[in-house]
Amino acid sequence: MCTPFLPAGPGRVGRQRSRAAAVLVMFLALAAGSARRGVPDGETSPSAAPSPPATGAELLSDDGADAEERLAALIDEAVAARLAGIPRPRYIPATDVLPPKGLLLYADDPRRDDFPFAVALGGFLQLRWLEFARSATSWTDTTGRVRPINNINTFNLNRFLISFSGHAVDERLVYNFAFFGTSDVGVRSGIVPIGMAGWKFGEAATVGAGVTPVPGSREWLDASPWNLGVDRSMANTFFRPGFSPGAAAVGTLFDGTVHYQGGVWNAIDGGTSGVLRRGTSMAWAGNTWWEPLAPFGLGYGDMEHHDEPSVRLGTSGVYARTSALGALGLNPEDTIVRLSDGTPIALPNALGDGTRVDQFRYRLATVDAGWKYRGWAVNFEYYFRMLDGFLGQGPFERQSIFDHGGLGTLSWCFIPRTCEVYARSSALTGPYGTGQEYGGGFNWYVNRSRQGRFTLEALHMNRNPAQNILYPYRAGYSGTAIQTQFMVAF
Fold it and tell me: Which of 111, 259, 390, 489 could bridge to 225 as Cys pair (CB 3.0-4.6 Å)?
């Protein structure tokens, strides 16, 4: 005869619960100890050190609610220890000399034998209001065409950039990839991919390839968030190259006092035509600078108030045989080569009646210097450009064209890291005309950081020959631009 099943009494339930709790607690204690041993210093969020776990005998001696309470506490401690072993995102802001690294979403730890991989999220936004009041109603280009000068009044998301950077497979295999765009050409404008991947041999050299700025001038290489005013100068916009696919090397030498970057690119604006570009010639470019006294830091201004003088001396050079582009690609930073009155060189009849330039040689050289000390800063850059070797439909009225010009800035951060005033000017001249600009403005740095800045600027220009949709410059325009901008970098 089978003995009928009898429900367990209260004493039996308590003992069974305590034995199960004891087994679970011993398992959790082992797991918590393993997690604590795997946590690297400085990589995790802080957590309180858990108290020693209860032994099985201790839990067996407890009854009912006391055992359940101690079990819940031990589970919480074990879970907290396990979570503490998981790397958590952390933000790395800008320093006085380096831009922000961004939100570090994940970084491997060699002590845990992780797969080598790291990724950080960064970027910036520029919100701008531009009003341009013309001082003339039209201008005439070298072909004899009369072009109107229009007033401008517009709000725009002038630039936005979202970037991902880090390393993969090996900590020396580094990458930086970004999406860049603007609303200046309409909300349906394309988003442009830019970036570079390469091998970091050390601080002395990183060699890689990608779509990057062709390093043709100092102001061009200073990233947009760190401009002294609302944007770069008229002279720089006129002379500089643009973005292009290419291969380059960057690095620092002599204890970080000498910096360089150089390489070879498809063209001075090689992203416009892509693989369909005509010819096989390349653009060769390089930039180097020396900081003999102290790190110069970001931008042209001294909002950081250097305690000791900082000096930067540099030079750039570009050589390319390039096609004459009459239209731009999707990258809004690209420019087309123009004569000193603003006429595109690719325009029919630009170099005489019946002419059309298809290809030419472009040579650009620049020198620059800067000084910062206790909130004061002075910077200048001078440009020398030679265009020759014209091919196309001639004869051309000139066999070569030499243009030159420069920029200068003076700034004073009168409340350290907070309020700054500045003046800036640039000019250029050539066989087809001369253009100038001069003006100034005010910067307010939010929370004493370069990463948030409000700028108010007034700028007068006379026969401006430069043009780019991101800037207040329109070829041939004369007048005054009032600009207000808020910039945030992260």
Answer: 489
- What is the pLDDT at residue 10? 43
Tally of CB atoms within 10 A around 235: 29
- Read off φ and ψ for residue 13, nearest 5 degrees: -60, -45
pTM: 0.83
Q: What is the DSSP string of 444-457?
A: EEGGG-TTEEEEEE
- Specify the DSSP class assigned to residue 344: B
> With contact defined as beta carbons under 8 Å apart, do 230 and 203 qualify?
no
Reduce the DSSP state of residue 207 to 3 states and report it.
strand
Confidence of residue 47 (pLDDT cuts 50, 70, 90): very low
The total number of residues shown for the chain amounts to 490
- As given in the structure block, the two tokens for residue 175 are 């990458």
Decide if pLDDT at 290 tops 80. yes
The whole domain housing 174 covers 116-489
pLDDT of residue 329: 65
Choosing from 84, 108, 127, the residue where a domain stops is: 84
Geometric angle at alpha carbon 244, from 278 and 209, rounded to 5°:
115
* Domain presence at residue 50: yes
Integer Cα distance of 104 and 166 in angstroms: 9
Which value, in Å, is the radius of gyration of the alpha carbons in the chain? 31
273 within domain boundaries: yes
Tokens for 83, please give them.
């979570």
Q: How far is Cα 284 from Cα 248, in angstroms, rounded to an integer?
A: 10
Select from 346, 304, 287, 342 the least CA-distant residue to 322: 346
| Gap between the Cα atoms of 172 and 261, Å rounded | 18
Structurally, how many domains does the chain consist of?
Answer: 2
79 in helix, strand or coil?
A: helix
Judge if 423 and 473 occupy the same domain. yes
Surface-to-core class of residue 255, CB atoms within 10 Å of its CB (0-12 exposed, 13-18 middle, 19+ buried): exposed
As given in the structure block, the two tokens for residue 359 are 């290809």
Beta-bridge partner residues of 152: 132
Q: Determine which helix (DSSP H) or strand (DSSP E) holds 68, and give its type and residue range.
A: helix 65-84
pLDDT of residue 37: 42
SS3 20: helix
Residue 206 lies in a domain: yes
